Amino acid sequence: MKTSTRRAVAHIAGSLISGHTTAMIYDYQDKRHVNMSGDVKTGGVAVSDYERRCHITGSGGSLYHHGNRAHITLQLDGAS
Questions:
Q1: What are the b/e assignments for 39-74, b being 16+ CB within 10 Å?
Q2: Is the overall model pTM greater than 0.90, yes or no?
Q3: Which terminus of the chain, N or C, has less C-beta within 10 A?
Q4: What three-state secondary structure class fits 55?
Q5: What are the φ/ψ torsions at residue 67 (nearest 5 degrees)?
Q6: Count of domains observed in the chain
Q7: Least confident residue range of 1-5, 45-49, 67-71
Q8: DSSP run (H or E) holding 18
Q9: Which residues contact 20 (CB under 8 A, 6 or more apart)?
Q10: What domain range is 33 assigned to?
């Protein structure tokens, strides 16, 4: 998985689980913050990846990373 895709998935999954969307995410692998924000709800996702200058959109568990031209399937399991 590309680094930018991994970051987007982490940002979206974290936002869905916590119910809060932040303006940036910390990438422990690269040891730095990355700006990423937008609307993350169970029914729809519209996130901007400012570093890649692209969007990640979708609904449910089906997302599309426009910068990488890649489909992402996201499935969150477990009780909140």
A1: ebeeeebebbbebbebbbbbeeeebebebbeeebee
A2: no
A3: C
A4: strand
A5: -70, -40
A6: 1
A7: 1-5
A8: helix 3-18
A9: none
A10: 3-73
